[in-house]
Target: Lysophospholipid acyltransferase family protein
Amino acid sequence: MSVWLPGAPCTPSGCVVPTGTTRAVPGAVLRLAAVVVLVLAGVLLLPVGRRIPAGLVGRWCRWIVRAAGVRVRITGAAVPTGGLLLVANHISWLDIPLLSAVRPARMLAKAEIRQWPLAGPLVARSGVLFIDRDRLRALPGTVARIAAALGEGSAVGVFPEGSTWCGRGQGSFRRAAFQAAIDAGVPVQPVRIHYRDASKTPATAPAFVGDDTLFASLWRVVSARGLVAEVEIRAAIPPGSHPDRRALAAAAQPHGGPGRDHRAGQRAGQRTGHRVGHQARYPVEDLRSRPPEVSAVES
Model:
């Protein structure tokens, strides 16, 4: 077990429930093809990615999610410019374009991607920051690289849980990346991601957990109807507002709604006679009740 990448108890068989309504196979195939085309186009443009306007990158990220058949709803105040650590809970492969739709960022990725044929070198040239999850000694160097990128004015996107969860549970935010924000003296932008189905209840179909394969997860998403990705941009945490990385990580951690501790969800399921990830339903914060200054973007 990696120190940086702890495991989650979520599994496809125990947590993931397909939506009640599905698309016909031809429609799902077309959506899958559209996602693949958009992703390949992005891969080909990676070497010049930094020259593309941020607004266009954000739209392209939303197009990927919409091509998969998932509506996108983004709520929250404007994201700060300059160096910024973007942090979010992690449920699905969809989280990556969703976080980049909030603000294009240099993502933190596992070092194994660098060895992938063709895509690896292209991703490396795009400015992605890599972490060797199997070498704890490499962690200080990774933190230093993140801090350097932040100090140069870049946004860096991190999923501090270190693993994907089904959406009805959450892991604790690991603290290392928050040290980089402290060292660079930049704000932290917490983002909360969750998914709903056509009945407006928490959806686990987008989850990419356990031994799930990427194709199985892709097919589950493109064949589902009525999925909505809700992205809540919480108030940015200014530099110097917390004494250490532990307090900063705790302040950025989302609480309530589907982002509760998985074991607490299991206990709730036992009390109601339901298994977590199947029939149990937990309340989600209603994003319609927002302060006047909060904006909403839906596509």
